[in-house]
Design a protein that fits this description.
D-amino Acid Aminotransferase, Chain A, domain 1; 2 domains; 9-stranded antiparallel beta sheet; 8-stranded mixed beta sheet; 7 helices; binds pyridoxal-5'-phosphate
Length: 341
């Protein structure tokens, strides 16, 4: 298979249309057979539910070329399960796990020429998503849906290495208590855009959102979970029912505990505890881990001991181990890697 003639090293995190996408439709209470299509556009009614009441959910994962030249995905079963959870909360029909896994394999295989080569730093981003195509005018769940998967090659998230970022404690909230913060729905992002634009305009890279109930505990950013390292080397991750259960975070916790022999704690983390940590990072599929060097809360500035020059040493060890597992240079725990080609 001939790879596309792209400058893999200089790709950004953007959309490049590829050859094939996967589509399946839900109608009369069932998913159709589904399959690959060429058309990158979507045709729906002007009265489709997605356009008015925002019934939409999505996932994000990547295909990697490993050192031995295989094309693999990383824990796609967890994306399948999380998307089913998101669907139930949004009164949408879950797309079955086995079909999800088969569809991801199929669309990646059909676009194998777009999967960046090993060592380029680039990967193939996979975006499964589902939205209400059925007509609604009164507020209720639609009766027709479309499930799609698009894939697009993306560059290394950080060009020239991961520099620590500065984030601010947001004046806005991301997710209501007992709301939809724990599911991957576009609506959570729609309402975070104003907070993002505001933070960027003030010179910050990201927002730290607090629990909206008491505004004393740390939740997450708009699209990544937090990890913290204490001064004695314990990994601490914030716990809350309105945090999106990041697969990267869950994997880092496992790597820390079982591969690196670290102590780990998953618990509520108060904003006032930030002073106690040696290192901080944001984790998600896109960047794996972005180091956080500094948090600004109004007048107060907290710079972590790891500093603003490079990723902290413990964060780096976690990052190297997890990316090694994804790229096939570190042995993966049972069931983490799904070989596609
Ligand atoms: C997708 C997402 C994450 C990261 O999850 P991963 O499974 O690690 O990619 C974190 N927070 C939010 C709000 C998200 O939507």
């Amino acid at each position: 298979m001939e790879k596309k003639n792209l400058d893999w090293g200089s790709l950004g995190f953007g959309y490049v249309p590829t050859d094939k996408r996967y589509v399946s439709n839900w109608k009369n209470g069932a998913w159709d057979e589904g399959g690959l299509i060429d058309d990158p556009t979507v045709h729906i009614s002007e009265c489709a539910g997605i356009l008015h009441y925002c019934q939409e959910i999505f996932e994000g994962l990547k295909a990697y070329t490993t050192k031995d030249g295989s094309i693999v995905t990383f824990r796609p079963d967890l994306n399948a399960e999380r998307m089913m959870d998101s669907a139930r909360r949004m009164e949408m029909p879950p797309f079955p796990k086995e079909r999800f896994l088969a569809a991801v394999d199929e669309v990646v295989r059909a676009n194998a020429a777009w999967v960046p080569p090993y060592g380029s730093g680039a990967t193939l981003y996979i975006r499964p998503y589902m939205f209400a195509t059925g007509i609604v005018i009164g507020v209720k769940p639609a009766t027709e849906y479309q499930f799609r998967i698009l894939v697009t090659p993306v560059g290394p998230y950080f060009k020239g290495g991961a520099k620590p970022i500065t984030i601010c404690v947001s004046d806005f909230d991301r997710a209501a208590p007992r709301g939809t913060g724990h599911i991957k729905a576009g609506l959570n992002y729609a309402m975070s855009l104003h907070a993002n634009v505001t933070a960027h305009a003030a010179g910050f890279d990201e927002n730290l959102f607090l629990d909206p109930g008491t505004r004393t505990y740390i939740e997450e950013t708009g699209g990544a979970n937090f990890i913290f390292i204490t001064k004695d080397g314990t990994l601490v991750t914030p716990k809350s029912d309105s945090i999106l259960p990041s697969i990267t975070r869950r994997s880092i916790v496992y790597v820390a505990e079982h591969l690196l022999g670290m102590k780990v704690e998953h618990r509520k983390v108060a904003l006032s505890e930030l002073h106690d940590f040696a290192e901080a990072g944001l984790c998600g599929t896109a960047a794996v881990i972005s180091p956080v060097g500094r948090v600004v809360n109004g007048e107060e500035v907290i710079t972590f001991p790891a500093g603003m020059e490079q990723m902290g040493p413990v964060t780096k060890k976690l990052y190297d181990t997890l990316t090694g597992i994804q790229m096939g240079t570190v042995e993966a725990p049972e069931g983490w890697i799904r070989r596609i080609l």
